[in-house]
Amino acid sequence: MSQTTSIEWCDHTFNIAWGCMKVSPGCQHCYADTLSNRYGFDVWGPAATTERRTFGAKHWAEPRRWNAAAEKAGQRRRVFCCSMCDVFEDHPTIDAERAKLWPLIRETPWLDWQLLTKRPERIAANLPDDWGAGYPNVWLGTSVESQEYADDRIGHLIAVPAAVRFLSAEPLLDRVSLRWASWAPLNGRRVDRDHLDGVRGLLHWIIVGGESGPGARPMADAWARELRDQCAEAGIAFFLKQLGGFPNKHGHGDALLDGQRYTEMPVPT
């Protein structure tokens, strides 16, 4: 449901629906699945067998209220959409609810909408007809928990025009390099694998975080450090959300890396 959120890098969350299907190792301990079950909603599974939970007019009116408040205050607000589903999932209910989302985004220019997906290969075919160079208030992102999924997903993301493109490396389950790979669109230029030309100017922000909660898989500080250094070299904003661990959310005592907190935010193009 829509709400003011404790997520450090946004002001609100808004869900077009609840429910999804797990598609990669990063989904193993999905908090949204756990929360749905806690409330008694069986909405996790394939489209052929599982419904999604949807919401009424009152819920869909909330962002308009946030937009009015942001405009009155003269301060933009960030909305994470969707924390309880995947906005680009191939599901008839999600398709129908996503069609309602684009007009809402156009009606709320004081809100920056952060759309994060594990299915970036579906982004281009499911954008509105007037997308053009990208809506100025939409940030597109994909999740990359390991090198395998970085190599598979980043190319689809950076092929789509957007005001901001971002990665969520949370939970980060292995080291990830942003250096030259098969997805890097370099217009035929040959570059050494040690270069970051494949993402320079094409990725604007990276969120890094370890897994938390029971059974949390470990994240090595070195993996976060390597991404931090690559971001600094390529001019990408770096946000360290948490180091992970259980029972302490931050594991090592706080979201500090080498004694420093990183909460950089991107500047839309």
Q: What structural category arises from helix and sheet content? A: alpha/beta
Count of individual domains: 2
**What is the first-to-last residue Cα distance?**
30 Å
Unreliable stretches (pLDDT < 50, length at least 5) are: 247-253
Helices, by number, come to 5
Residue-averaged pLDDT: 90
Largest sheet: 8 strands, mixed
Radius of gyration: 18 Å
Give the spatial strand order of the biggest sheet: 1-2-3-4-5-6-7-8
> What is the element string, with H for helices and E for strands?
EEHHEHEEHEEHE
Q: Determine the strand fraction and express it as a percent band.
A: 5-15%
Using the alpha-carbon principal axes, give the shape. Answer: globular
The count of DSSP E runs of length 2 or more, i.e. the number of strands, is 8
Describe the protein in words.
By secondary structure, the protein is of the alpha/beta class. The chain folds into two domains: 1-117, no CATH class; 128-269, no CATH class. 25% of the residues lie in helices and 14% in strands. It is built from five helices and eight strands; from the N terminus they run E-E-H-H-E-H-E-E-H-E-E-H-E. It has helices at residues 31-38, 57-73, 92-106, 147-158, 221-234; strands spanning 3-4, 12-13, 77-81, 111-117, 138-143, 164-169, 205-209, 237-242. It has an eight-stranded mixed sheet with strand order 1-2-3-4-5-6-7-8. Helix 5 (221-234) links the parallel strand 7 and strand 8 (237-242). The longest helix has 17 residues, at 57-73. It is globular. The model is unreliable at 247-253 (pLDDT under 50).
